[in-house]
Amino acid sequence: MDAQTSTFPETIAMRIGEDQVVTDRTSPVRDPATGETIATAAYGGAEEVERAVAAARASFDSRVWRGRTADEKSRILWRVAELIDANAAEFAEIERRTLGANRMFCAYQASNAAECFRYHAGWISKIHGRTSDVANPGANFAFTRREPVGVVGLITPWNFGLMAAAWKIAPALAAGCSAVVKPALETPLSTVRLGALLAEAGVPAGVVNIVLGGAEAGAAIAGHRLVRKVSFTGSGATAKHIIAAAASNLKRLTLELGGKSPYVICEDADLARAIPAAASVMFVNSGQACVAGSRLFVHRSIYDRVIEGIEQVIANIKIGETSDPSVMMGPLISQAQRARVTELVDSGVAEGARLVFGGAPLDRPGFFFAPTLFTDVTPSMRVMREEIFGPVVCATPYDDLDALMPELNDTEYGLAAYVWTRDLTRAHRFAANVEAGTVLVNGGRADFSVPFGGFKQSGWGQEHGQEGIDSYLETKTVALGLAG
Ligand code: NAD
Predict the structure, then answer these.
(1) Residue of minimum CA distance from atom 8 in ligand 1
(2) Which residue from 254, 236, 55 is spatially nearest to 164, judged by alpha carbons?
(3) What is the pLDDT of residues 374-432, one digit of tens each?
(4) Is it the case that residue 314 has pLDDT exceeding 80?
(5) Res. 135 pLDDT band, cuts 50 70 90
(6) Atom of ligand 1 nearest to the CA of 213
(7) How far apart are CA 159 and CA 286, in angstroms?
(8) If you measure from the C-alpha of residue 46 to the centroid of ligand 1, how many angstroms do you get, rounded to a whole number?
(9) 463 close to ligand 1 (CB < 6 Angstrom)
(10) Which CATH architecture has domain 3-257+458-478?
(11) What is the average pLDDT across 276-283?
């Protein structure tokens, strides 16, 4: 793949064991800014998953990866990070062409993916068990071993394909697992490129296998008896299929799902920071972000000022084809996604919300939708309850933050929550009472050292931090009788 000319090989191949695999079936990869097909990807199903799982299992049994010393594995993951950095421009361009997001977000994906491999390279030498001589001291000695869970299935969405792949592959490798990775149909190219860099860095063939395809391949991974764990990022609807399929062999599951995150601006907030930050959390990647702050709650005393400020920010968002570096917002990923956003926005209007800005697809090629601001929303409206996954924000005034809390938490989701306040007590109370896996106060940012995951229907388990590594490990207890 060539970043300068943005040309892609004829058919993007899967990577199974030593082989580059193409199939009779293919799937188009489109540029969402034009709707045109820019590449053709191989399309795999149950047969390719079977081959990939067999290759992964063979690599796991041979210990070709997990049997290496911590230092060897760590150096290889660090090398992956270096290679991502060295190819960052190409990765950013691949993501930009297939996802349509702006250059800054696509460049961030590459640097974040590299950071993820560096973070997990450091973990490898810190994975170890503990000892105990509590029962019959001197005569009995017990210890634990941390062992890789086995072959893992890693299924990712299209809205940040490169980062999502890194967030799963890096800890899986750090733990010593072998993997079958399946990126989303819409954005497979960056994961395929990452697969090539893993090989170049020294990850042995068969340890990370990449199957391209959609629901059929995903379902085959979720149902496979030799896959011991699935880490999935995507929609709740798909997660329910995965849970059902995973029951067949009681797979371990990590599920990173959708959100409807509250974004609260208190009366004492630093508005010069809070307003632009709000707009960026709401409209990053055209609102196609699981952590989008899509429900905006503003203290009544500053409500009009904030709404005016958000309107101004929206009015200044330059929309278009993101090859232009000054463009801030690109298209939605697909025709289907645009139809879904349109339907939900129309439901908001029909249910009586006031459209302050935007509200419709843009009349141009590609899948663009105008950044949209609703006011006069009520908690029961669909726009307030369902994840829209588009550039749509619903704003409501409030009088008392404690009294608001039940409404904030009245959602099936619980991924992220944002608050802006200078009052430390209020910030702590908000953090303690809001039902969300991540709480960001005054623009705080989490990193790989702390876990990321969802409460309620936003997910099961966490990625990143110790929790992330633990989810790829089993604990084995060994007891030695020392007497006699
Ligand atoms: P999706 O559920 O449609 O697809 C996700 C992945 O699952 C894709 O690779 C898809 O091919 C695969 N898949 C589809 N059907 C399957 C099946 N039956 N069995 C197994 N795999 C199957 O989601 P999407 O539209 O790609 O992504 C958007 C969703 O992802 C949103 O809900 C968003 O909030 C969520 N998301 C969550 C996080 C998070 O970390 N919590 C991050 C990004 C996106």
Answers:
(1) 184
(2) 254
(3) 999 999 999 999 999 999 999 999 999 999 999 999 999 999 999 999 999 999 999 99
(4) yes
(5) confident
(6) 11
(7) 10
(8) 19
(9) no
(10) 3-Layer(aba) Sandwich (3.40)
(11) 92
What CATH number labels 262-449?
3.40.309.10
State the residue for tokens 């399929």: 245
290 an active-site residue?
yes
Nearest C-alpha neighbor of 285 from the set 358, 411, 390: 390
Tell how strand 140-148 and strand 473-481 pair up.
antiparallel
Burial letters 297-334, b for 16+ CB under 10 A, else e: bbbeebbeebbebbeebbeebebbbbeeeebbbbbbbb
Q: For this structure, is 321 an active site residue? A: no
Q: What is the pLDDT of residue 355?
A: 98
Instruction: Report which residue type is found at 290.
Output: C
Q: Are strands 252-256 and 262-265 parallel, antiparallel or unpaired?
A: unpaired
User: Ligand 1 centroid to 140 CA: how many Å?
Assistant: 48
For the cut 50, the answer to whether the pLDDT of residue 4 exceeds it is: no
**Torsion over CA: 103, 392, 186, 82 (sign):** positive
* Residue 242: alpha-carbon gap to chain centroid: 17
Domain coordinates of the chain in residue numbers?
3-257+458-478, 262-449
Measured in Å, residue 231 CA sits from the centre of ligand 1 at 11
| Percentage above 90 pLDDT, the chain | 95
Residue 121 corresponds to which amino acid? A
d(CA 428, CA 251): 37
